[in-house]
Amino acid sequence: MDVLLLIEVIGTFAFAISGIRLAAAKKFDWFGAYTIGLVTAIGGGTLRDVLLDIPVFWMQTPLYLYVTGLSLALVIIFRKALVQFNRTLFIFDAIGLALFVVIGIQKTLDAGLSMWVAIAMGTITGSFGGVLRDILINIEPLFFRKDIYATACIAGGLAFWIMRDIGYNDVIQQLVCALVVIGLRICAIRYNWALPQLRYDKDKHNHNHEN
Questions:
Q1: Residue 108 phi/psi, 5° resolution?
Q2: For a disulfide at 121, which of 5, 14, 104, 151, Cβ 3.0-4.6 Å?
Q3: Model pLDDT for residues 24-40, shown as the tens digit of each residue
């Protein structure tokens, strides 16, 4: 198993766990939970591969379906620990996010596209599955909240770019990218880091309009 495939499998497992765990908290049945886990795991990569015009990764092997099934089995067996503790969801989500950003960037570079395109594709790969998960579970997508999420993906991509320009090998580039994404996600939660919100003060607007 090559390194990229291993990273993608681990990322799939992590994201599937995060999706299934949320579905369990919402009292979905086993099939519904599996579907949410699968969509979370393959959503971003599917959009990436379609945009890059390359074969969609999960259609080449049933491995990702099996990994999602394993994730479901683990949630069923250890459901109390996984459903009750938000920290567990956060850990799996952060790992999945970081690994999928790495995969998105590397696949885009392998397709011969520029680094700025690779950062965009890394962000899509990391974020879009979570957006679909949140929409299907009927909660406001984390991607659009003030939380540091997509910003962490972009920062990881920039770190990848810097390591690449300095001349470090692929492993160092990927490792630094993943650590930046995970580090920013941890700091965002621990220290309540957030981007400024775009606010619209309706009452103030009406008052100014009346004057």
A1: -70, -40
A2: 104
A3: 888 899 999 999 999 99
Tokens 């090998």 belong to 169
Radius of gyration of the chain (CA): 18
Task: Report residue 79 as tokens.
Answer: 């459901």
Cα distances from 168 to residues 132, 173, 174, in angstroms, run 35, 6, 10
CB 118 within 8 A of CB 104: yes
Query: Residue holding tokens 């996984």?
Result: 82
Q: What is d(CA 154, CA 157) in angstroms, rounded to the nearest whole number?
A: 5
Which helix (H) or strand (E) segment is 124 a member of? helix 115-137
How much is the pTM? 0.84
Distances (CA, A) of 49 to 31, 58, 121, 185: 26, 10, 9, 25
Tokens found for residue 143: 């991607």
Tokens (6 digits) for 133: 């998960």
Quick one: DSSP state of residue 196?
Answer: P
**Distance between start and end Cα atoms, the chain:** 69
